[in-house]
Amino acid sequence: IRLDHLLHEIKCLKALNDLATHRRYAVPSGHTGFNRLVECALVEGPYPEELISAWDNWSTENESLNKRPSSYAPNSLHVILMMEDGGTDLESFSVQSIKQIYAIISQVLAAISLAETKISFEHRDLHLGN
Question: Of 4, 18, 56, 125, which is the active-site residue?
Answer without folding.
Answer: 125
